[in-house]
Amino acid sequence: MFKKLVITVLFFSLILNSEAQENGMQEDKQISLMPWPEKVEVKASGFKIGNDFSIYIHGDVSETSRIYKAAVRFIRNATDKTGVFVAEGFPNTDNITSESASLNIHFDQEAKVEQGIDESYKLSVGSDGIEIHAVTDIGAMHGLSSLLQLIEVQGGHYEFKGVEIQDSPRFVWRGLMMDVSRHFMPVEVVKRNLDAMALVKLNVFHWHLSDDQGFRIETKTLPELYEKASDGLYYTQEEIRDIVRYADDRGIRVIPELDVPGHGTAFLTAFPEFGSKEGMTYSVERNSGIFDPTLDPTNEKVYEFLDILFKEVTALFPDVYFHIGGDENAGRHWDENPKIQQFMKENNLKDNHELQTYFNIKLQKILEKYGKSLMGWEEIMTENMPKTALIHSWRGVNEGMQPGESLVKAVKNGYQTILSNGYYIDLMLSVEEHYVVDPMPAVELTKEQSDRILGGEATMWAELVTPLTVDSRIWPRTAAIAERFWSPQEVRDLESMHNRLEVVNQYLELIGIRNQQVQAYLLRNISNYQDTHALRQLVNISEPFEIYSRNDGGTQYQTYSPFTLFADACTADAKDKRRFNKLVTKYIEIQDAASKEKLVSMLERYASIEGSLESIASDAPLVGRVLPYAKRVSNIATLTGKGLEEGMLSASDLEGLKTLLGQKEDPAINLDVELALSEDFQRLAEFLAK
Ligand code: ACM
Question: Nearest C-alpha to atom 2 of ligand 1 is from which residue?
Fold first, then answer.
């Protein structure tokens, strides 16, 4: 029995290995594509990008066709990347024939952007030409996204890497949620993030449009909502339509969310009479957290109000799904209201869950009238919730749940579901922690049950991000999450992911994502336009506090606080962290001179940070706030460097280092970062002290 098991395990690991190889995961293949395709074969020669590069799209295309516009963007991106002056800046000009074109695009039909369309494509790149074949125009556009990422330098010129790719997505729902309530995100911010989504083949934009901190859409029928609860920061209906069109042009569905009955402060700021606490007035929330203001599900007028609102809002969004939120309603105002308690008794509603289900079912009927299906966060999954509801699984260990618990419960109970637990990018966790999470849980499910798992969504909650910093919080980590949603399950090599992520980050910048630009700007601002060299060294080894510890109690930062601080310039994956980790590991293993030399050079740089910052601090108050931390970091680097050069560390130096590593900054200065290399410093110090 035991032997058989061993053989079976061996057999499967062999299959997995050979599959990984077929999928071309070996480093030597050097393709930086993300998400990784279903099947890829690398060829000896690629297609040289010269000024004769041209595109011919087969079929009945006009300048307003989705694929035509995508091809124009492709040419702009490719020429911007390579500096090549092409003679033909547009596809299908009179000068271009199928025979003369460098790239021929074939597809069978223009798709309607909706769930479950065919997104597959084939891409063939060789020295004599490039072909994209797809069933739909959206599949063909995925082919263009892949092709763009295949630009590389060969023999001193740019070319598209030679490949045969056959590709299709693993999941139909590959989403990014943007919260525009906590911090409003202007149209151009949303648009450039839609461009980035298209680059990495994400296809659902979930737009969290209302919460305690603001209601963000113009409503003609209920203007009080945006007049009283948006601080003047909202999308006009024309802007909403523009964004929906922009997304559609990129094959991306748009799912609006109006969060009810909880997270309702903005609603109730405009319409206090629909609240659950009698005589209460409300004002837009400035802090973060879970608040009590909740719509009153026992008030028929609330449904009339929501009917009017949903009728108007659903008309703006063509997708069949409408997200009603439904999360984090503790129902405290329900408990405190005798009329609501009486209503529950009369209607035989045992608890707040049943009352919320009563509410949800009424909402579902309203949405049905307008041709919409209801989706909501997992709290909506109560006993009597109709099976047509789509369950958005999000809770995990922080909320006292097992990750994916509600996902499994949903599919076993007959609901379709998507996963966001594991993809909360606002937690500021390393990309690796998200990348290893799979929407398909490691439990036994029937085919029918697993088919109900549609995919997942990364969630960009916006308590601590602004239009300035949001790109750097979403990207590049979400590219790795996009790979999890698109690529075969066995594509999970971390080294390969990191290497390709670095390259996809360059393409993200090419198409307009500003994560790297903004970091440079933030450091200039912090230095008050002095030398930023030392700040850059420090940013490269520091990470913002994780898992909401940055915003203690939700009141450390208000929506109007500055988010241009040192912590905002730091990212979830400090740039030097992997390099330092590898060098320390290798040095501990073999004590080679090369690793030692590189480590000494890094430590010398870190040791000099304090002095450099001190020299600019008197003219830069924001640098003054960073100084105590910089001093600690430089002391850690100096002590460790000394130990490394001498080949040993005294017991007292080790203790000194441990003390320094364990210290925390004064919370009053809101530095909110930690040294990302701490564990490796400790490992190295302990080794040197032996
Ligand atoms: C949520 O994070 N409250 C859905």
Answer: 394
